[in-house]
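Preliminary data (for renewal application), NAP complex.
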Amino acid sequence: MTVAVYLPLEEKTRWWVDQLSELLPGRNVWPLDAVTDPEAVRYAVVWRPRTGDIARFPNLRAVVSIGAGIDHVLADEELPSGIPIIRTTGRDLTQRMREYVALHVLRHHRDMPRQLRAQAEKDWHAIVVPVAPSRTVGVMGLGNLGAAAAKTLAGLGFATRGWSRSGRDIPGVETFAGADGLDDFLAGCEILVNLLPLTGETHGILDESLFGRLAPGACIVNCARGPHVVDDDLLSALRSGQVKQATLDVFHQEPLPVDHPFWSHPAITVTPHVASQIDPGTGARLIAENIKIFDTTGTCEDLADAARGY
Ligand code: NAP
Ligand code: GLV
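Predicted structure:
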C-alpha cells in the first residue's frame, strides 16, 4: 500500500515523507511526483494539490488534507467525485489559533498600532482604552477553531459573540445562527474574527455590505481564507474609516504578490499564513493515526463533509 505526499514546496514534501515513513511502517510513503505505480496508491496526503494530481490514482481510498480546511482539495476540478476527504485538526492547531486570535484581538483592543506610531514620534501618548467587557468581539465560524477562539476571548473578558450555520451553545458567548442571525451578530461588533471555512456560501462574505453593518471603526482579523475578503471593499472601508485596522493572515494569492497594496497599507498587518500551521511532528502523528483508523474502519472523526465543503 502506497501513500503519496504532495506540498507545493519540495523540501516540505520531503519533510512530511520522512515523518510519515517512520509512523507508517510497512507502507511505502512517496513524494507524489515520484510514484511509479499509481494503482498502488491508497492515500494522498496533500496541501494545495495541482489539478489532476488526485485523479492519477484509480484505487485511492481517501485524500488527507494537511490542514483543517479542505477547500484547497475541492479546488481541483478533476477531483474524483465522492472521494472521502480527511482533514487534519488537533490540539496544537487549536492552541496556535487561540494564541494568534488572542494576540491580534488584544492588539486591536489596546490600539497597539497607534502606540507604536506614537513611540516612533517620541510622543507620550497615554491613552485610556475601554476594558474588555465593554468591547464587543465577534467570531464567525464556531467549529474546532472558532469555538476555541471564542472561549479564549470570553475568558479574557470580552463581550463575545459567535456566529455559525446551525447555532451552538458556548458558555459565556452569545451565539447567533444562519443568514437570519447575521445582522444581529454584526450590529455593534467592534472586532471581527473570521474562522469560517471557504465554501460557495462564504466566498466574499467580508464585503462592503458586511463591513457597513459593523460598529464604525471596527477591526478585522481574518485567519481563515483570503477569498473570504473582497480586497477592494476592505481597502475602501479602511479609506472611509468604517474599518479602522485589519490583521490578515490569508490572501487570494499566496505568497501575497509584492505589488499588492496590503503589504504597505498603514492600517493592515500582514502575516504569511502562519496563524496556525500544522507541523510535521504532531501533525504527522495525527495523519498517520487517521490513515490507520480509516483503513480499518472506513471512517474517522476528521472525515469532512465534502458536499457541504468543510
Ligand atoms: P470547522 O470545524 O469545519 O467549523 C466550521 C464552522 O463554520 C462551523 O461552526 C460551521 O457551522 C461554520 N460555517 C460553515 N459554513 C457556514 C455558513 N455558510 N454560515 C455560517 N457558518 C458557517 O472548521 P475549523 O477547523 O474551525 O476551521 C475553520 C477554517 O479555518 C478552515 O476551514 C480553514 O480555512 C481556516 N484555517 C486557517 C488556518 C491559518 O493558519 N490561517 C489554520 C487552520 C484553519 P456549523 O457548526 O453549523 O456547521
Ligand atoms: C490551514 O490553513 C489549515 O487549513 O489548516
